[in-house]
Write a structure and sequence with these properties.
The chain is α+β, with helices and mostly antiparallel strands. It has one domain: Gcn5-related N-acetyltransferase (GNAT) (Aminopeptidase, 3-Layer(aba) Sandwich). It is built from seven helices and seven strands. A seven-stranded mixed β-sheet has the order 1-2-3-4-5-7-6, sandwiched between helices. β2 and β3 form a beta hairpin. The radius of gyration is 21 Å and the shape is globular. Bound molecules: coenzyme A.
């Protein structure tokens, strides 16, 4: 059942989609790709990553993992994430909730050091804003800067959104019946690719700090309002 809060949230979300779409359109008109802050996630984000993945419905779990992963499969996957070795990237909304997560798995095999596998999921309500494509680019840059020359994606052939992202980025697709492998050849790292990664990391940290401050401010305001309403006479103090 749709509650009043859901309706308000949907309106707010719709407004931000419109605003972001507007920014995207005006940036594209100027030939500048929109900047989406993407953070590198660590150990303390495990619970948030789990909540994001658990929210995926059966169809999305099937597309993301290649089978209808149950909650316990997802929990095991999240527990197994190795933040020392792999890279996990995330995009948060203004309330700091993770709305998109990408996993770049580096090969543990020394002979396959030059390969990395990419997997991603974007919350349903945040799709179509370019987050999937930006996470793909961000992961490709990280892979490139870590000496990887081949990033690959294992997707179901029916996953036109994922395969579209890979194809557009220049990946070669190899279809094997219901499954498709996409291979993206990466150029060697350059000073520019290293600098771009540093700048993007700083931008994402700054964005996170601003969102955290704004969230803290809104929480304070809400607490103040609640306190105000709990006073007798709707906030007017009785004269002593
Ligand atoms: C695949 C997924 C990550 C795409 O995320 P997204 O943020 O919506 O993607 P983007 O907004 O970056 O869109 C990328 C492109 O795909 C296209 N696209 C989006 N949904 C599509 C769909 N259902 N069918 C065809 N193309 C689609 C977009 O139009 C866009 O193309 P454009 O750049 O030419 O406009 C998201 O749909 C998802 O989480 N799916 C479930 C999990 C999954 O499939 N993961 C991938 C397996 S590893």
């Amino acid at each position: 059942m749709n509650t009043k809060t859901d309706a308000v949230r949907d309106r707010v979300d719709a407004t931000s989609v419109d605003q972001e779409a507007g920014v995207r359109a005006s940036n594209e008109a100027r030939g500048t790709p929109p900047i989406i802050p993407i953070r590198s996630l660590g150990e303390h984000h495990r619970a948030q990553i789990l909540s994001h993945l658990i929210e995926l419905d059966e169809r999305d779990r099937y597309l993301r993992f290649g089978f209808i992963a149950k909650d316990e499969h997802i929990a095991r996957y999240v527990e197994g994430l190795n933040f020392e070795f792999d890279e996990v990237f995330g995009i948060t909304n203004r309330k700091l909730v993770l709305i998109a997560v990408a996993h770049l798995a580096y090969s543990p095999d020394d002979r396959r050091r030059q390969c990395a596998e990419f997997g991603v999921s974007v919350a349903k309500r945040a799709r179509g804003r370019g987050y999937g494509a930006r996470l793909f680019e961000r992961a490709a840059m990280d892979a490139r800067n870590n000496g990887v020359s081949l990033m690959f994606i294992h997707a179901l052939s029916e996953n036109s959104a994922m395969l579209g992202i890979a194809r557009k980025a220049g990946a070669v697709l190899e279809r094997h019946g219901s499954e498709t492998e996409a291979y993206l050849r990466l150029p060697p790292a350059s000073l520019n690719s290293h600098m771009t990664e540093i700048v993007e990391d700083h931008y994402a940290q700054l964005d996170y700090r601003l969102k955290a401050q704004s969230k803290q401010f809104h929480n304070m305001l809400a607490a103040f309002k609640a306190l105000h309403h709990s006073w007798p006479m709707g906030g007017t103090k009785h004269p002593e």
